[in-house]
Amino acid sequence: PWSSAGAVLDRVHLLLLGSSMAEAAEAAAAARARRNQRTFQVLFASALFNACTVCSTLTVRPELVARVLGNDPALIGKTTANWLAAGSALQLLVAPTLGKMSDAFGRKPVLLLGAIVSLALRIAAMLRPTYWPLALEKIVPQGINYYSQWAVANAAIADLTETTEELASTFGTFMSYLGIGTLLSPLVSAQVITMTGNPVHAYTTCAVWNALLILTYVTSFTETLPKEKRREFLGSLGLPFSAFSALGILRTASAS
Fold first, then answer.
1. If both were cysteines, with which of 141, 147, 150, 224 could 159 make a disulfide (CB 3.0 to 4.6 Å apart)?
2. What is the largest CA-CA distance in the chain?
3. What are 121-157's pLDDT values in tens digits?
4. Among 143, 181, 177, which Cα is nearest to 157's?
5. Measured between alpha carbons, how far is 151 from 175 in angstroms, rounded to an integer?
């Protein structure tokens, strides 16, 4: 009798253990799904902000180029076309490298790198709207931030999706937010220019959108590439972050 009772208790224990493990697995899957959805929402917000950074200055760039080069429509058109071509060429050159960097170091560092460099160039164009600041603000962000980040964001989405249908649906939503930013940002810039009377302030709105993009990455984006697949920051990728850290240390030392 005692052995029979023990066997019954063992079976009950196994059933309870199996039930607990199943519940734990379901809870873990639900938590993972919530984290993935939150990351998708962050990527959607980044798509909106990224489009806003690019489209904020579309309507005022010819006016600013005219201030630098004169009111020759042919020269203005040629200059802006050359900048667009240069940005596309830069994208063609660096996009594969950025993709490999994101596979090696993670998605977040590459997204941040492009956004930080773009913000610096946009502030320079805002403060000094002459030929080279305007040219670099158009060419470099187009190559390393806007179009290239589509690919990195797509890779981040692919990290978190299990089926091609889910991937296609999520990336479709991502592109919808890009479209919203494309529609929204010129309207905001036009309102700012109307209030200030200075087309340069389109770059102010552009810089604000860019700062929001960086803030979103820093505070809300969770790395999607598994840790075991990532390498530590080395070489050129680590230099900007090392420089920021060193600057902070020097400031602290000088303050003390």
1. 224
2. 104
3. 999 999 999 999 999 999 999 888 776 677 888 889 9
4. 177
5. 12
Number of other CB atoms surrounding residue 164 within 10 Å: 9
Q: What are phi and psi of 71, to 5 degrees?
A: -90, 50
Entry field: residues in the chain: 256
**How far is it, in rounded angstroms, from Cα 72 to Cα 61?**
14
Between CA 172 and CA 44 the distance in angstroms is 10
Orientation angle between helical segments 164-196 and 201-220, nearest 10 degrees = 140
Q: What is the pLDDT of residues 35-88, one digit of tens each?
A: 888 999 999 999 999 999 988 998 899 899 999 999 899 999 999 999 999 988
Q: CA-based angle 17:18:24, to the nearest 5?
A: 90
CA dihedral sign, ordered 86, 92, 97, 98: positive
Residue pair 42/220 in contact (Cβ under 8 Å)? The answer is yes
Collapse the DSSP code of 39 into the 3-class scheme (helix H, G, I; strand E, B; otherwise coil) and give the result: helix
Which residues have C-beta within 8 Å of that of residue 128, sequence separation ≥ 6?
none
Which two three-digit tokens encode residue 99? 């993709």
Amino acid letter for position 227: K
Please give the Cα distance from 119 to 240 (Å, whole number).
14
Looking from the CA of 100 toward its CB, the CA atoms found within 13 Å total: 4
Task: Provide the token pair at 103.
Answer: 């596979």
